[in-house]
Amino acid sequence: QESRVRRKEGKKERAFAGECVSGYVAMSAVSKLRANLAAADMKVASFMLLNFASSTGIVVSNKIVMDKLGFKFATTLTFVHFTMTFLMLLFASVVGVFERKKLPIEKVAKLAAGNMGFVVLTNLSLQYNSIGFYQIMKVMTTPTVVIIEALVYQKYLENNLKVSLIPVCLGVILTSATDYRLNMIGTIYAVAGVLVTSFYQIWSGTLQKSLECDALQLQLYTAPLSALFLIPFMPLFDNYTIGAPSSIWSFEYSTTNVLCILGTGVIALLVNVSIFLIIGKSSPLTYNILGHAKTCFILITDFIFFGRPLDLKGTGGIVCAMSGVFWYTHLKLEKVRIEKEALARTSEPPPSVDAPSGDKTTESSNQYTAVPVADAGTDKKSPSA
Question: Is residue 91 predicted with pLDDT exceeding 90?
Fold first, then answer.
């Protein structure tokens, strides 16, 4: 009977110890999460919020202009967006919102050509491919950015971050892809679009650093060049046939319609600038992850507000993608926190050592080690972060 009592008491003690351990683990996880959130850069978070809101707004406003107003000329509308971005940034620089900086045209033209190529090749991919394959290739921009940064720029991603990208990409594919029909011309356009888009996103960050300019200064040069490069492709993708009932010349340019079209240009300014702000302050990969989160958010609003039928594949894809987004965000915040803590430790001044006197020399020498005068000059250089 005593042995039974002891066994029961032992089980209770082990259960209590397990509860204590699980409680400690939960408390440490919560404290780590709080520390990670405290280490977040609020500027980058505000840029992401701006991009999230403006990107959602541009989708809705473009849909209104194209479907309700009947202005079904996507390439021309993109030209309007670039032009409006340039004009508003020019006005902002004149009134002193930011200072204009002279940038080398040949370097900025590369970025503008990438921007134009992204628009043109995306339209061609959508025209020649099924919706499913088009969506899959858009998702492939994320791993392509990782590969290009590793091969071309020797910038390598940590393994845990690589793993977190798998559920993000897989979830978006499951959610948005419906069919996967292939054809040679469409595949070429899609692959070229992925490569051009990836380089464009990477250059958006590297040029800001190499030219020592900010997002507004760079966008002031990029927007007009992108609009200029886009002009030859406008008659190819949009109907410019004079006299045709569905051509751009037959559209009713009333005051309301023109104001609505120009209004999309105002939202496009916020989108274009916020893209450069996010990539310049974080990375192209982080911008890609934000884009996948926006895709899931738009699909969720479809389910809630517009009666999109729930299915296992779509719901599972959203859950899978968003879990990857949160995982990636957690890892990035943890990395930032660790780097900040390491920088704070290296920047702390070393403890001062008082000169030993009398009988206290033995005690002082046990606590501190003297630095030779000849080596003192090297200790003044703090290690680079």
Answer: yes
Q: Which two tokens stand for residue 237?
A: 């993708």
**Sign of the torsion formed by the C-alpha atoms of 111, 204, 134 and 308:** negative
**Which region holds residue 291: left if phi is over 0, alpha if psi is between -120 and 50, else beta?**
alpha
Q: How far apart are the first and last CA of the chain?
A: 65
In the predicted structure, residue 102 carries a pLDDT above the cut 50: yes
Average pLDDT over residues 76-87: 94
Nearest Cα residue to 333 out of 22, 28, 42: 42
Residues 6+ apart with CB under 8 A from 325: 168, 289, 292, 293, 296
pLDDT digits (tens, 9 = 90+) for 146-163: 899 899 988 888 888 888
Average confidence score pLDDT of the chain: 79
Mean local confidence (pLDDT), 114-124: 86
Residue 262 and residue 128: Cα distance in Å, rounded? 30
